[in-house]
Hints:
By secondary structure, the chain is α+β, with helices and mostly antiparallel strands. Helices cover 37% and strands 20% of the residues. It is built from 21 helices and 20 strands. Strands 1, 3, 4, 5, 6, 7, 8, 9, 10 and 11 form a ten-stranded mixed beta sheet that branches. Strands 13-14-18-17-15-20 form a six-stranded mixed β-barrel. Helix 1 packs across helix 3, helix 3 runs parallel beside helix 7 and helix 9 runs antiparallel to helix 10. 49% of the residues are buried. The N terminus is likely disordered.
Amino acid sequence: MIILINSQMFKRNLISLKQVTINDGFWAYYIKLIKDVMIPYQWEALNDRVPDAEPSHVIKNFKIAAGEIQGEFAGMVFQDSDLYKWLEAVSYSLIAYPDTELEKTADEVIDLIAKVQQNNGYLNTYFTIKEPDKKWSNLKDCHELYCAGHLIEAAVAYYEATGKKKLLDVARRFVDHIDSVFGPEPHKKKGYPGHEEIELALIKLYRLTKEEKYLNLSKYFIDERGKKPLYFEIEAYNRGIRNIHNLWGELGERYFQVHLPVREQTTAEGHAVRAVYLYSGMADVALETGDQSLVNACKRLWNNLTKKRMYITGSIGSMSIGESLTFDYDLPNDTNYSETCASVGLVFFAYRMLQIDPDNQYSDVMERALYNTVISGMSLDGKKFFYVNPLEVWPEACEKNKVKSHVKYTRQPWFGCACCPPNIARLLTSLGKYIYSKRDKEIFAHLYVDSELQDTISESEVSIKQTTQYPWDGKIIIDIDSKKETEFTLSIRIPGWCKEAKVKVNNNEIDLDSVMEKGYAKINRRWKHDSLEIYLSMPVMRIKANPNVREDEGKVAIQRGPIVYCLEEIDNGKNLNNIVLSTDSRFEIKKDKNLNDVCVIETDAFREKYEDLNDELYKYDEKVSYEKTRIRFVPYFAWTNRTPGEMEVWVREK
């Protein structure tokens, strides 16, 4: 289906984080946790002060590049980006929780960053310290534009949070330098990033400053990608590489999303994080320019990604080699990669598609990723993290089978490549802007979060306040308070997982069939002091996978509301693979105080019992009986916050 868009429709109507306050409930806990624990903890990690954690080297690299200390560059070539993402999270946190000491620390860090910037605007500690004569010579591998993108995002966020321009000025000088190096003009390089990110960052800078050259540069990077001859081959030749076959490695051009121009791509390919960052940038440019060909490409890529290559937990990237997407329905549970950053990027992509076309297929996936893989990437105490998010774990196999060595069964205190922890922090501290969007006289409620939106509609100040215990309870109260009676449409999402919903306005039930459009109930009226009640049925659901997903054949996953559940060894004993769920099992929902009051699910099931196999590896005509047992499911995001052990999402059914 072709969606025609008006490029002016949304770009001036995006909801600002300062308009939304998250008051209480599920997400308030996480945002407070990030402020109180994760941001200080990550600051210690960036300064290499966390015991038993891999060193970050980030602050040390900046001090070396600034001439404050002597030393050699250490860490990944893209190490600068960890500091920029931390600063972005700090910025969003300062909006919710003003903190003079934290702001002072951020200002000092910004002074350090500015000190590293060169006279022409260039800013990258790796090339300043280690290879000053090789700037812009290896875009494919060296992440200069990727780091620049994260600097831009941090700068925009810090300006919006504090009104301070120093980091924004640094970012703009760097972008001006980049713009002087890359572009369609004959004297410029025809390059684009090996790891996409700057594309969406430039749109943020454009929306803040209204400088057309930032939009044009983002569009250039997207338009140039995949054109033949491929720039990565040209720059490799210029570096003296003559055997192009050695350039690409075993995953080839698809790994970098350069196998085709972006408008001709139909399947989600390559490194999963790069892919969704690219698609997010494409959607942003489409929105700003009204480019229908980009919209159509985004729709095709979205459909392939979420309908054939996404896990039930909202994770993507099934192969550890290259952290990559593979092919349709290839979704193994115990060797999958499912990088936390990839689900963060999927949230970015979903949110941008919602601005183009408000449809619950996008908000449902955004919600699925947020409540499952994104927060699985951090422990409940905010001090340990997952890079990889499997759907099945056998600890001994993770330790001894090298095919599974990337899978960890406990979260880690930090990583040498630490992109995921600050990515979680910056997404969750900015969650307020994902709850709503606006178009003309229409407010869309995409997520149900105990929160309040302040907006101006038809020159009237309007408050929209949600009160809810979601996701544990399907009741949401929305109170609308307008300074004067104002007509507008409030469009509320009815999730795809909800088969029975009821909506009342001032105790009068709405006929949902008459107001539904693309999964949203559109309620148009003159509002002043009104109350809207939403009731979303939340039974425990058994989810089955498409039979083409071979690993899940004959199995079910348990979901309630947006939450996907799993079995853990601590509750159910070893050999979870022996557990069989009956088709008529009845589920009991309980609160667990030891897991932050999450809802757990208990039911009767069966465990396979082998009569006389003993220690024999194989035996003919072995008799199998089924012994009744009580099992317990916990939310997937909460697994291994207690005693580590086996885990599985997909359970056999009989």
